Amino acid sequence: MTKPPSKRKKAISAVSSNSTRPVNPDNPASVTIDVSAVEIPELSDEEQSDRLLLERKVERAFFEAGKALMELRDRRLYRSTHKTFEEYCRDRFGHSRQQSNYLIAAAEVYENLTTIGCQNVVNEDLTTIGSQILPTNERQVRPLTKLEPQQQQEVWQQAVEQAGGKVPTGRIVKDVVQRIMERTQVPNTYQIGEVCQILVKDNLELRGKGGCWGIVNHVGEFSCTVTMWDGEYTVRIDYLKPLNYLDSECQQMQLLCDRIKRLRDSGKLEAPAEAVLKCLGELKRPYLTKFEEKLLSFIEQECLIAP
C-alpha cells in the first residue's frame, strides 16, 4: 500500500521591517510580513497623579480598615444587630475577632510611624512613593504591635535598611524584632507561688485583664504561667509586675485563688456571682474585708462548695 504524503505546515516568518523583499512564487515560505511597532504613550501629568493617588489608597487599605474597625468597636456601632463585636466581625466581614484586633493594632503602628515620619514634612499623606517608606499590609507590622512606640520606629527603620530601602517583608521585620528582644531580654526572676499584677500595655490578648492579680504556677525562660480569677494565662515577663507580698500574704492569696478556681470549675456560677469573682480578681491588697469574705462564703454555699 502506498503511504500517503504527509501534510506539513508551511512556516511563515514574521519580520519587523519596512523594506519589501521580492516574493518567490515557488517558495511561499519566503514571504515577509511587515509588522509596525506599537508606540506606548507616556502617562500624562493627570494620569500620573491618578496613579499615585490610587497607589496610596491600596497601600493604606489595611490602615483604613483598622481605623474603621476601631471606631466600630469603641462606639459599639454593631449593637443594633449583634451582641458582641466578635459575632459582628464574623457575620459582616467573614473574619475572626483576632483578625480584627490585628488590623486595629496594625493601624495604630502605622499611625505611629506616619506621625513620627511627618514631623518635619509638609505633606503628611506619605506612602512608599513619598519621602518615607511605610508598611503596605498588616503582616509587615504585626511583629511591631508588642513594642513601645519608640521601638517600633527603630525596628522599622532597621527593617527598611535591611530590605535595601524598600518595603520590608513581614519576615524581615520579625527577624529584626527577634534580635532586639534577645538583646534586651532580662532574666526571669519570678518564683512559683509569687503574686504579680498584669500589665496589658499593647497586648490585645490581655485586654480586660489590666490590674488583675495572678499567682505564678510555672516559670519559663522569658514568661510565666499565672492563675487568675478566670483561668490560666502564659504571659511574657514584661507584661507582669511583682506585688512584693510577704510569704504569708502570698499564701493567703493562694487560698483565695483556690477558692475562686473551685467556684469557677463548679459550672454553677450565675452572672452576678461571676461579677463578684471578677472584682476579687482585681484586689489591690492581700486580704478580704469582712463583707467580701461573707459575700464569697455565700456564693460557695449556694454552689455547695466548702471554703
UniProtKB/TrEMBL annotation:
Residues 1-11 have a biased composition (Basic residues). It comes from the Bacteria. Residues 1-30 are annotated as: Disordered. Residues 14-30 have a biased composition (Polar residues). This is Site-specific DNA-cytosine methylase. The lineage of its organism: Bacteria, Bacillati, Cyanobacteriota, Cyanophyceae, Nostocales.
